[in-house]
Amino acid sequence: MTKSRPAPPLSRRALITGSAGAVGVAAVGGTAWALDRYLIEHADVTSASDYQGLPGTQNSGSATTGATSAGDGVIDGTTYTSSDRQITITSHSSGSGNSAMAWFVADVRLNDVTAVRNAFAKNTFGTNIIEYPTAIAQSAGALFAINGDYYGFRDTGIIIRDGVAFRDEPARQGLAIMRDGSMISYDETATNAAKLISDGAWQTLSFGPTLVDGGAAVSGIDQLEIDTNFGNHSIQGAQPRTGLGMIAANHFVFIVVDGRASGYSNGVTMTGFAQLFVELGAQVAYNLDGGGSSQMVFNGSLVNNPLGKNRERGTSDILWIGK
């Protein structure tokens, strides 16, 4: 039965109180502002998955819940193969000591790009709402997942997920996964969510920078800053990283590099990260949230070893693919 619900509001904001709420009430001035802005959960849209992929004023107009497998899939170690998708995860390492690096590559081939889905922590769109990636993946029914752009840390960006606009506040260089299986980087400030959806955007990510364009690493990316707001760390230097690249339409590579773990993996610079995608043949690649949030999940378990501690960190969203 086809569900019909209105598209989610883009501005409604409801405060969810929790253990941090009492602290926020007692605090004053800048402390109260910082708690409210960076710690206290704010829910804009609950039961977000009910809206995603459905027709409405913010949707392209065609009802879909994403491509589904024919049910003939087989898992073999870290490989999944079915009649409409293939996921192959490989692990890599190089160097030793302070030059050690460990990274994980998921090569993904699809018949239909709408198999790439989004899920929000606690199935809620808002700010400061986080959950472990394995928990988000389990709730969504994901076989494979990576962390997304941590949209919930900021209140800007164009956020389209599964064909629905949840936020339209252009601010930076974004990435769009289009319904035709292509992937493009774009200037958010030169467009808007409605135009992107009209052009066929299925997912947008708002973090960056763009790593690869036209098959070549973008120059100057080691000097770029994404955010300079309170509490945000620099993305420069050798860091754990997560990124997404497109080799050809419906053929993607997801890479997670571990870091900040001496003797195991020191991380990678932005230029070095771009080069990993170039070597795999990516025509376009884009940087997502990194650090301890860089996480890859397959079949219910972490693939990588975040910060060398083998522990998950809560994040606000994932990109996922089901069986």
TrEMBL record:
Domain Phosphodiester glycosidase: 141-319
PROSITE patterns in the cross-refs: TAT
Pfam families per UniProt: NAGPA (PF09992)
Annotated segments matching region Disordered: 51-70
Any one Gene Ontology molecular-function term assigned to this protein's record: hydrolase activity, acting on glycosyl bonds
InterPro entries reported in the protein's UniProt record: NAGPA, TAT_signal
Keyword set, alphabetical order: Glycosidase, Hydrolase
Transmembrane residue ranges: none
Record bears the keyword Hydrolase: yes
Biased composition (Low complexity): 60-70
Superkingdom of origin: Bacteria
Protein name per Swiss-Prot or TrEMBL: Phosphodiester glycosidase family protein
